[in-house]
Design a protein that fits this description.
Blueprint: E1 6-13, E2 20-26, E3 44-45, E4 48-54
Parallel strand pairs: 2-4
Antiparallel strand pairs: 1-2, 3-4
Length: about 60
């Protein structure tokens, strides 16, 4: 969550392979070569594949 653009983390299944994955939600995808090394999302965490999903800006919603 401390990486640039990361707004959340979850788990799911890869839509193509069906394997379990870690999903990292970001405001926008940025090419790897434009990120600082410390802001690159790893391809695997503890052996589990990681997928990056751009979801835009996340804001808290008030009671309606």
């Amino acid at each position: 969550m401390k990486l640039a653009n990361v707004t959340g983390v979850g788990t799911g299944r890869d839509e193509h392979s069906g394997e379990d994955v870690i999903i990292v939600f970001v405001t926008r995808k940025v090419p790897r070569d434009r990120l600082r090394d410390e802001d690159v999302v790893p391809e695997r965490l503890d052996g589990v594949p990681v997928r990056v999903l751009a979801i835009g800006q996340v804001d808290a919603q008030g009671d309606t």
